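lol ok so funny story. i was supposed to be doing the assay writeup but got distracted and ended up predicting the structure for this chain instead. priorities right. anyway since i did it might as well share w the group, maybe its usefull for someone
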Amino acid sequence: MENNNIKKGVIGIVSVAVLGGIGYYLAQKNSATTTPIITATNHYKDGTYSATGNYTSPAGGEEVSVGITLVNNIVTDATFTGKATNPGSIFNQGHFKEGFKEKVVGKSIDDISLTVVNGSSLTPKGFMDALAKIKAEAKNS
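and the output, tada:
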């Protein structure tokens, strides 16, 4: 009787080991042959682009000029020129210009979303308008 129980125990242990081995083999086989998931990313052609952006301030319509250099979808350099004539808008565009680069350079072009920069809350709208034009141009190049 005791030998019978030992045999059943050994058979049980061997069965578990064999099934575990088969499961491990199949898991490894499937992970090696599974097609990797590739996430879609926007690809922009490397280069230097510029565009004019527009926004409305309390003084009326305003324009800004933006230049962006792209390498592998990353902004490696950026320029900004305010074109305002109203003193308040000139002031705000100047503040924006002092702080925008740190929020743009080194970032993926798709991750840039400026709302307020150095207290300027409307100038970023002009910047983002120009950036949208740059993205369209860089994508279609």
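The first strand starts at residue 47 and ends at 57. DSSP finds three helices and three strands in the chain.
back to the writeup now i swear
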